[in-house]
Amino acid sequence: MDGRTPAAGDTMPALRWHGPRDLRLDTVAVPEPGPGTVLVAVERVGLCGTDLEEYTDGPVQIPAAAAHPLSDRRAPVVLGHEVVGRVAACPGGELRTGARVVPDVVVGCGRCWWCGRHQPGLCPTGAVRGLQDDGGLAHYMAADAARAVEVPEHVPADAAGFAEPLSVAVRALRKAGDLSGACVAVLGAGTIGLLTAAVAAARGAGRVLAVDPVATRRRLAEGFGAAAAPPDGAADLVGDASCGRGADVVVECSGTPPAAAQAPLLARRGGTVVLVGTPPPGTGIAVREVVAREQRVLGSVAHIWDEDTAAAVALLSRGTIDPSPLLSAVVRLEDAVHGGFERLLRDRDALKVLVAPGPAEAPGGAPVPAAPSPRP
Ligand SMILES: [Zn+2]
Ligand SMILES: [Zn+2]
């Protein structure tokens, strides 16, 4: 990634999933952008629980046995779906070369009932770049030019690297409706949960509560204006904040069966539960209580580029949400396995590791550390 436009036949390093615990830094061809596509020189890629799940227990979403029907790709694939970078080439001219963009990773078939209603995330044959097609853990990544969201120059790359998970939080709370004055309880204060707490506060929630067993995460939630408690204190926390009624909105972000089960019980009668975390198959909730209490229970998955990603970029651009307290480390592509995947498995206090695939600079001009760095 040396600033010039790559030529046909150029190669690049890319971190590809070959199997569980088998990520390899392979040399692959730089994608050749055709009409309607953009070639992005990748600046930052966030690693998240979805990547970790593929690393430890995959293939979960990665097509391994047969090619994916839309992308026509199967393993090995380049991981990385939380991407920001600069336009290196855009044959159709939709984007200016050098512009910083968040490439869209949720790709629908464009022909089905859901795609016809602008719901590409629900497309039965949809493909996510970084899982079912090549993603951003490489020097370059191809994406659709018309669906990339431009990021203003004043937003640092380390902040823009949070646009994708922030868009997940934006979408989850969009489903809950008007939040002004509401009591919003977030279960699970990982990256998505903390960003959800921050978005709830930004959208005018009267009380924001966060529940997590890890003390450092509760402290981070408090930094975003939330009151926090461990799971065994959740009922008291919610009761005290809602005059005993229960939360107006509960957002389940932990993906753990106990939290999913607890979510409707923490919501008030007539309240809303948004399920964002993905617990193991077969996880149940208290249906009888949901019926008797006339609660709305909704699922929310990923994001849509123009509804959610654009809103997330606007929140970062205006400085409404500063995700920097969540950043545990920035590592080079060569160190992504050790300093990223392995560290996130080992270190409960680590939240977001961003990978800087190119020869980029860390904040402050210091070289990106080759080894894991402590939380700033
Ligand atoms: Zn993710
Ligand atoms: Zn479709």
Automatic annotation (TrEMBL):
The record's InterPro entries line, in alphabetical order, gives: ADH-like_C, ADH-like_N, GroES-like_sf, NAD(P)-bd_dom_sf, Zn_alcohol_dh
* Record's keyword annotation contains NAD: no
Q: Which cofactor does it need?
A: Zn(2+)
* Enzyme Commission numbers on file: 1.1.1.14
What Pfam families does the record tag this protein with?
Answer: ADH_N (PF08240), ADH_zinc_N (PF00107)
Keywords (A to Z) from UniProt: Oxidoreductase
Instruction: Describe the location of the Alcohol dehydrogenase-like C-terminal domain by residue ranges.
Output: 192-316
Q: Give residue ranges for domain Alcohol dehydrogenase-like N-terminal.
A: 34-153
The biased composition feature labelled Low complexity covers: 357-368
* GO MF entries: L-iditol 2-dehydrogenase (NAD+) activity
What is the main EC category here? oxidoreductase
Oxidoreductase listed as a keyword? yes
Region Disordered: list its residue ranges.
357-376
**PANTHER family hit by this protein:** L-THREONINE 3-DEHYDROGENASE
Q: What is this protein called?
A: Sorbitol dehydrogenase
Q: What organism is listed for this UniProt entry? A: Streptomonospora litoralis
